[in-house]
Structures are given as structure tokens and as C-alpha cells.
Design goal:
334 residues, mainly alpha, two-stranded antiparallel ribbon, two-stranded antiparallel sheet, 14 helices, 4 strands, 4% strand, elongated
Length: 334
């Protein structure tokens, strides 16, 4: 009789147990969904065994299919909108690094993620073959027909290319021209190299202080603190993976999924910031190294001066003066 009552669907103890179970915290994502699903399955099976042992029980298992309630497609998860850095934040980070002898060493680590879509572990991995080797750059001469930058490769996670969790073979990447300009500036101007490196390695873990300590200092100088809203885990790659799809034609969508080595669903869930505008995306790819930016600023200053002069001396409208100046520039171009 007592066991029969336990199985009664209105049993208060059973109802309380279910309510309590749903509020328990288990380790794991989605409120411990996987662990709850497993434990609910065990409890349901236990009651199934009771039904087999006591045929006099007239009620069905009240926890039947309880496990399914905790399955992934039944959980209403809070959707986290992927974030990305703004052009202003990126400009500040790169400018601060470029003007600091110690922090400037971080520039390849930033640029290969921000303009090449690399994962941090592609450049600063734990294994020796995951340290960045300059021969990955393919001699710096494989021009991308898509961006005009260069194509380079990232080694497999497993040195022997055995199946691994992320990828098991070399991955082709596309370094945007802005990223190429930054690496050229870093090699020639910052490091004083006579040519772009094709040998040797770049290993932030071997530095003193190490790369991660320098990165924390850089973020702090720029007002980005871990745990605050300004900090974004894997932020440089997330910024690239969002901006490149917005800045480039939609016909290149599949191309950039392959270059970032993730699926469309992974991109949508973890990388795509829906708040990224075309203007913002374009601005992210126009953050140039110091010398190049100075040259661009000088050209823009000269252009503006010529436009104002035409408006003053010839009485042209702003639009007509811009058209005339730009036509002269193109006429003089080689």
C-alpha cells in the first residue's frame, strides 16, 4: 500500500522532490543540463524497477520521460550575444602597443588574430609545434585573390595530424592587407629587420615578462580589465570573424567560414555580433600602422585643402569640388 501511494501522481513528496531537483545546481553548462538529464534518467529507471518488482502498483511511473525534460532542445537557454571590439578600442590598443618597447612585441599576436582569424593557441600554444613559426607565412608571397593580402597556414593541433577536438590538418588563412601592413611595420620599423622572417619562431610564453602578463598590462593601460564589460575573451578573433563577413561581399560567406575554420552554426552562436554595422566593420580594417597612418593623414589633409581652395576660388559646391579633386588625383595616378 505504501509503495503504491508513492507512485500516486499527486504525492506531495514526489512533487516536492521534482521541484527541488529542478533548482539544484550541477556542474556544466545550461544550468548543469547534462548532469540533470543523467540523474533524472537514473531516478526514472529506479522507479521502473519498482514497477517490475511490485506488479500490484496500479499507477504508472510518475517520472516517466522525466529525462527528456532536461534534454538540450527542451532547455530555454539565455542567448548570449557575441561581442566584438570597437574600432576605437582597437586603435587605442595598437597605438599603445606600438609606442611601447615592451608591449610592442605583442603586435604579431594581436594582428594574426585580428586580421587573420587565428586562435590564440595557433600562435601561443602549449606544444612546441604550436609556437608561431615564421615559415607559416609561406614566404610572404602567396597573394590572396580575395583580399589582396597574403595566404598563410596554421599547423594542425596534433603534430602528427591525428584526429583531434578542433582540427586535424593544416588550415589556410587569409591575412587582410591591413594586417600585412602591420606585420611589415613591426618587422621593419619596430624590430629593425632587413627582410621579412621566414625562419625562427615567435613564442610569447618564453618572454620575461611573458606574453599574457604583457597583454594584461596593455589592456589595463587601455582601460580594459578582466571581468569588466570591456574585456572580451578571444576578442580579437571574434572581432575579425564578425567584421570580415560584414565588410566583405555576402558571396564570400563560405570562404570566410573556411578561413576561420568554423561552421555556420558556431559562427552564429559564438562569433557573429549582430550589432556590427557596415561602417564599423569597414573602420576596423582601416586602422593602419603609424607611418602608413601619417601618410594617409597627410594625403587627406592635402585633399581637404585642395577642395576648400576650389570652393573658394571657383565657387564650386562641396560635391563638385570633391569630384574635381578626385578626378585630378586619378588622372595623375600611374
Amino acid at each position: 500500500w505504501h509503495i503504491n501511494e508513492v507512485f500516486h501522481p499527486t504525492n506531495r513528496l514526489l512533487i516536492a522532490m521534482r521541484d527541488k531537483f529542478e533548482t539544484l545546481t550541477f556542474r556544466g553548462g545550461a544550468d548543469g543540463r547534462r548532469e540533470k538529464e543523467k540523474q533524472a534518467g537514473h531516478l526514472s529507471l529506479a522507479l521502473d524497477e519498482c514497477l517490475k518488482s511490485f506488479p500490484e502498483i496500479v499507477y504508472r511511473n510518475p517520472l516517466r520521460n522525466w529525462k527528456a525534460e532536461f534534454a538540450e532542445n527542451q532547455i530555454q537557454r539565455a542567448v548570449k550575444v557575441p561581442k566584438s571590439y570597437s574600432p576605437e578600442v582597437i586603435t587605442k590598443l595598437l597605438a599603445t602597443a606600438a609606442n611601447d618597447e615592451n608591449l610592442g612585441e605583442l603586435i604579431p599576436l594581436i594582428i594574426l588574430q585580428l586580421y587573420g582569424g587565428c586562435r590564440p593557441s595557433d600562435i601561443d600554444g602549449l606544444d612546441a609545434h604550436r609556437v608561431w613559426h615564421w615559415h607559416n607565412m609561406n614566404s610572404w608571397n602567396q597573394t590572396s585573390d580575395v583580399t589582396g593580402g597574403i595566404k598563410f597556414k596554421v599547423p594542425a593541433i596534433d603534430e602528427d595530424e591525428n584526429p583531434m577536438q578542433k582540427k586535424a590538418a593544416w588550415v589556410d588563412r587569409d591575412l587582410h592587407p591591413t594586417g600585412l601592413a602591420w606585420l611589415q611595420w613591426w618587422c621593419y620599423k619596430f624590430k629593425g629587420m632587413s627582410e621579412l622572417p621566414n625562419k625562427g619562431s615567435y613564442d610569447p610564453k618564453s618572454w620575461k615578462p611573458k606574453g599574457e602578463a604583457r597583454m594584461k598590462r596593455l589592456r589595463k593601460l587601455c582601460g580594459i580589465t578582466t571581468g569588466k564589460d570591456g574585456y572580451i575573451s578571444d576578442g580579437f578573433r571574434k572581432t575579425f570573424a564578425t567584421a570580415i563577413h560584414v565588410a566583405r561581399p555576402s558571396t564570400e560567406y563560405d570562404y570566410w567560414l573556411r578561413r576561420c575554420s568554423h561552421s555556420a552554426s558556431v559562427h552564429a552562436d559564438y562569433y557573429k555580433n549582430p550589432n556590427m554595422t557596415a561602417e564599423t566593420a569597414q573602420a576596423l580594417f582601416k586602422i593602419y600602422p603609424p607611418d602608413m597612418q601619417a601618410e594617409i593623414d597627410e594625403k587627406e589633409h592635402s585633399r581637404e585643402k585642395a577642395i576648400l581652395s576650389m570652393m573658394d576660388t571657383q565657387g564650386l559646391s562641396r560635391a563638385d569640388a570633391e569630384g574635381a579633386v578626385d578626378a585630378d588625383v586619378w588622372a595623375d595616378a600611374p
